[in-house]
Amino acid sequence: MGHLRRAGRRTNVALLAVLLAAAATGALAFAAGTPIPARIATLTHGVFGLALVVLVPWKTVIVRRALVMRTTSLILLALIAICIASGLVQVFLGYGVLWRLTPMQIHVGSALLAAPLLISHLRRHRRQRLHRTDLSRRVLLRTGVLAAGAAATYGMLEGIGRLLESTSAIRIATGSHRLGPDAVPATIWLFDEVPAVPTNHYVDVAGSAFTASDLAARSTTVAARLDCTSGWYADAQWTAVNLADLLPGDQLAAAASIEVISVTGYRRRFPAEEAGSLWLATGFQGEPLRAGHGAPVRLVAPNRRGFWWVKWVDAVKLSDVPAWGQPPFPLS
Ligand SMILES: Nc1nc2c(c(=O)[nH]1)N[C@H]1C(S)=C(S)[C@@H](COP(=O)(O)O)O[C@H]1N2
Ligand SMILES: [Mo]
After folding, report:
1. CA 250 to each of CA 226, 255, 316: distance values in angstroms, whole numbers, following the listed order
2. Residue 265 sits in the same domain as residue 159
3. I need a labelling partner for 183 at 20 to 30 A (CA). Which of 17, 59, 101, 276 fits?
4. Does any ligand 1 atom lie closer than 6 A to the CB of residue 189?
5. % of the chain exceeding 70 in pLDDT
6. How far apart are CA 151 and CA 48, in angstroms?
7. 168 lies in the same domain as 207
């Protein structure tokens, strides 16, 4: 009996570690914009997610042993199940809008809702502490077996996806699925709204004012991939001018970061060295930008996820604040 109880506690420790790792790699998967970091983040995220599934039989034994199951525990369980299921839907069925929500919104939303419940769950069971022996060789061996089981499940699901010619087989390193340029949805990060911006709006670029037509006159066609964290990407042609060509060189050299601010207040800050890979766009696929997509001027930031592509640009400012002096994800 004592032995069983100990095993149960270790299952709980493993579950907690895996949940935290899944959350951390999920955040990294949202942050990563280039193939190698994205591949590492999405692969480890998938393996941690599946490790939760692998642990289900053991956790079931523990849950069965409990005398009562609280409603909050049931909700926590349901949220984690929804999170895993919507993650699998995103991978195997792709980006699609179900009842106004995307699988990714459900995936992240359920994880965020589960977090406070998990904290109170841990508080209620705080007597289960980490023991010295939790790092023994036998435990490390079992951890290896769990990792191998989760990795094998991942490999098996990838294989099935290929055999069934699921869209999972052609998703890119970030996990996103392809959309044609015509199908790109006007996307809001969280709470922003499409503003009405006049076509002759002046964009302030480090103190100089430009209208969209001023910028268009200096633009070239740039091929770039817009890769939204809601799980789609689109390759398209943008009519855009490079920020390094607009910003005064001496001021740029002295600055730490470039802040791009929307008329809505939405903003992102980039390292000053990145000026050469940031573009102010006025056109998409040879047409002027549309209102929902950032008209009259929006940022194009290849190699960065969609939430960096500030729409309805009002100002581009050079500043001494380092680029990391901002929340990792926008709060609006
Ligand atoms: N001002 C502002 N810019 C924004 C957003 C926003 O909500 N507000 N959403 C971002 C996100 S999450 C993405 S994926 C892209 C989407 O661009 P699109 O609407 O042209 O598809 O814009 C980005 N720029
Ligand atoms: Mo996005």
Report:
1. 30, 9, 16
2. no
3. 276
4. yes
5. 97
6. 9
7. no
For 235-257, the pLDDT digits (tens) are 999 999 999 999 999 999 999 99
Note whether 49 and 77 are within 8 A (CB).
no
Q: Which of 130, 161, 177 is where one domain is finished?
A: 177
Which ligand lies nearest the alpha carbon of 224? 1
52 in Cβ contact with 84 (< 8 Å): yes
Residue 168 shares a structural domain with residue 185: no
What ligand 1 atom has the least distance to the C-alpha of 306?
14
Q: Is the pLDDT of residue 1 over 50?
A: no
Give the global pTM.
0.94
Residues 172 and 30 in one domain: yes
Q: Which residues surround ligand 2, an ion (CB under 5 A)?
A: 187, 228-229, 306-307
| Contact 192 CB / ligand 1 (< 6 Å) | yes
Ligand nearest to the CA of 291: 1
pLDDT in tens, 142-192: 999 999 999 999 999 999 999 999 999 999 999 999 999 999 999 999 999
179 CA → ligand 1 middle, Å? 16
Instruction: Fill in the DSSP letter of residue 245.
Output: H
Number of the ligand 1 atom closest to the C-alpha atom of 294: 20
